[in-house]
Every structure is written in structure tokens, then in C-alpha cells.
Amino acid sequence: MKTLMxxxxxxxKTRREAADCARELETRLEKLPADRExxxxxxxxxxxxxxxxxxxxxxxxxxxxxxxxxxxxAFTGEISPAMLLDCGCSHVLVGHSERRAILGExxxxxxxxxxxALNAGLDVTLCIGETLAERDGGMLRPVLDRxxxxxxxxxxxxxxxxxxCVAYEPVWAIGTGRVAGPAEIIETHALIRAFLRKxxxxxxxxxxxxxxxxxxxxxxxxxxxxxxxxxxxxxxxSLRAESFxxxxxxxxxx
Length: 254
Ligand code: PEP
Known about the structure:
The protein contains ten helices and eight strands. By secondary structure, it is α/β, with parallel strands linked by helices. The chain has an eight-stranded parallel β-barrel, surrounded by seven helices.
């Protein structure tokens, strides 16, 4: 299983800024070993510019930060998986906590997106995670189980495990500088692994579970060494090529 290093640029960067940063990242990722992969979730408006800057067959794969579960139609403001594929994407992010909290996305809607995007040919990174109130209220497991059950409800058992990643992003650790501790990450990733083993007849042990929440170059090597951590999803620290390059190459000999 390849370790996945994923960048989420959120609503940052003009086309020019994005293309320059993507190009620099691609150069830094020349040193990316064969057992690691890197994906960049860029804003919709910058995807085509990034694809052009990266050129054919780049190490850095491209993804959208969201999609709508339909091929085309009267869905003003939305973007379809087919449109993402047309912009050079191979991946899409689904269920980010900012979309759940700010845009009111439901577990059911996120489930529809997961199934539709996979079926359309995009690899999916599904974000799940609890708020601090939910964790403090003893609701960690029920919340994650509910989010996973709904999001995966339309995913068939024969879907190749490497096409879907689960990104565990505790809401209290996103953009706050407060990273979850190793014990919290190990415990939560074990819960997610157990859920996936029960949910899929084939076990899907090759399905990657990423950690996200205040990941930086300095803490990445430790995080990816933990049990059931198969990569990271990085927001703030992915905005500069130097910083995300250091995350992607963390723990490797200089
Ligand atoms: C994210 O946006 O998915 C994220 C994890 O952000 P940050 O790394 O800034 O906490």
C-alpha cells in the first residue's frame, strides 16, 4: 500500500499562484519514493492551470475539493465528476468538515457523492471526524460509525480498495495548530479500520486511512509511523511548495 500525501488548498490561490506552486512542487517531488503518492486538491478555478503546469504524467496527481453527484444538469454553481476528469483530475475530496459545517452537507448527500464519483472514475478521499463537543461527550465512535456507514452505503464490495481513502480529521485539529496526540490517532484509526473490516466482506485492508489536522513538516514523520496511518491530508502547511514538499518527503534520508 502506498502512503498518500495529500494537499488541500481550500479557497486559496489565483491561477498564476497555483500553477507556479504546482510546478515547484512537482520539482520537489522528483525525490518522492515509489512507495509514496502525492495528490493536490486545488480550487476548481485553478485545476486546468495546474494540469497545464504539471504537464503529462506528473508525480503530483490532481483532485477537486468537491463534486455534485450528477453527470450534468440544472445545478447552478456545482461541478460534476466528468468536469473534474476533463480538467485533468483523477481524485476528489468528499465530506470535508468545512463543507459539512458551513454548507450544511448531510451524511446522506456525502454518501451519494462518494458512490457517484467512484462510479464516474474518480478516486475518492472521504473526510470524517468529530467535533470537540462530540469527543468530550463520549460520542467519538457513534459519530464516526454514522459518518462512515452513510458515506459508504453505496460503495460496492468489489470496488478496489486503493480507489477510496478515509481521511480522519478531528474538527478540533483543523487549522487550529492543535494536532491530535499519537494515542488519540492510534485509537481512532483502529476504530476506523475495524469499521472497514466489518463493512466490506473483503476486509479492504488495503484501504488507506489518512490523518488530517494541523499536519506540518515537523510532525509528519511521527504521524505516518503510527499504526493504521497510511498518509496525511494537509491544509495550511500545503500552501507553500517548500512546506508541502517537506511533508511529502518527511522521514526519508536527506
Ligand atoms: C484540512 O483542511 O483538511 C486540514 C487538515 O487543514 P490543516 O492542515 O490546516 O489543519
